[in-house]
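BUG: 3D viewer hangs when loading the predicted structure for this chain

Environment: internal workstation, default settings.
Expected: structure renders.
Actual: progress bar stalls at 90%.

Input used:
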Amino acid sequence: MCGRYSLSKSKIELEERFQAEMLTDFKPRYNIAPTQLVPVVTSQSPKGFSFFYWGITPEFGRNKPVSQKLINAKAESVHQKMTFKSSFKQRRCIIPADGFYEWKKLGKKTSIPHRFTLREGGLFSFAGIWDEYETVDGENQHTFLILTTEPNELVSEVHDRMPVVLTPETEKKWLNNYSSEEELLEILKPFSANEMLSYPVSTLVNSVENDSPALIRKTDPMDQHGNYTLFG
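Structure tokens produced before the viewer hung:
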């Protein structure tokens, strides 16, 4: 599962890192959630950023509202599932990010959010697929989902899945329309735990209404008695 991520860099940093032009203004985001409009780079337009909604409606429910859309797909089977097969072959994209969130369960009622980043704190991307659907109002809408895989040693301490994290090299292969199925599937592996770090953050991230730099700051969820405290 990948249900929240951050993209706290500037427009200039995004353009430099992904070698793509952004024709609209961009404000750093600290708590990106499903259904929101965010920048992606597609295999059809690798030199420019497109803005798509996070969440794909399956074929059997194209007119469902955004709230009922799928947000992730398993990388292990994305090339086989009828719902995603066409997008995997023809409509791949990368989703720029500089961190993602997962929640570590502590008992039945308590969960502590953790942020995962690259060790040096730079930009990376998730492997994704996109599609175009007709809304209930008859408008065409571009949407995407994030591919997930088995967790590496770091993420497995918090969750049993992680997003497929790409490097500049694997991004080129993922966006290349001539990459073979074997080459694409080889990319969809857990990212090295040695190149990542994680830390607990405020539970303010639990609400999609919150979107500020405070959400990506490290917090100490334990009080002076060694008990977990929920922030926010």
